[in-house]
Amino acid sequence: MTTPALDQPVTQTIGTNANGCTTDTITCNNPNAAGQVIFQFFNNGVDMGTDSGTGTVTDTLVCNAQGQLVLTLNGASSVVTDVECLAA
């Protein structure tokens, strides 16, 4: 039997990096520490990929020259406008 994924809250910590650029560190927790957590990233409704882990996933978005928040995962960078946190 497969357990359905449930939306979880996203915790945000806003900061500023050494270049004076805004950062947004986002964290997703699964109430079950041994359970899977998945961040799904979107740019104006377009799926930009996922990041996943066990128990907790944390990623940092950093502003670009246009002031947009950008996520870099596995060497690829994408503007992110929305994030969904799922726990299974």
Your description of this structure?
By secondary structure, the chain is mainly beta. It has a single domain (6-87), classed as Sandwich (Immunoglobulin-like), CATH 2.60.40. Helices cover 0% and strands 66% of the residues. The strands form two sheets. Strands 2-3-6-7-8 form a five-stranded antiparallel sheet, with no helix packed on it. A four-stranded antiparallel sheet has the order 1-9-4-5, with no helix packed on it. The protein starts with 5 loop residues before the first strand and ends with a strand. The model has no long low-confidence stretch (mean pLDDT 92). Residues 10-85 form the C6 domain.
Task: List its traits.
mainly beta; 88 residues; Immunoglobulin-like; four-stranded antiparallel β-sheet; single chain; five-stranded antiparallel β-sheet
Detail the topology: elements first, then pairings.
Layout: E1 6-8, E2 10-16, E3 22-29, E4 36-43, E5 46-54, E6 56-63, E7 69-73, E8 76-79, E9 82-87
Antiparallel strand pairs: 1-9, 2-3, 3-6, 4-5, 4-9, 6-7, 7-8
Structural class computed from helices and strand pairing = mainly beta
Would you tell me the overall average pLDDT? 92
Query: Into which percentage range does the β-strand content fall?
Result: over 45%
Largest beta sheet: what is the strand line-up?
2-3-6-7-8
Radius of gyration: 14 Å
* Count of distinct structural domains: 1
First CA to last CA: what distance?
12 Å
CATH architecture: Sandwich
What top-tier CATH class fits best? Mainly Beta
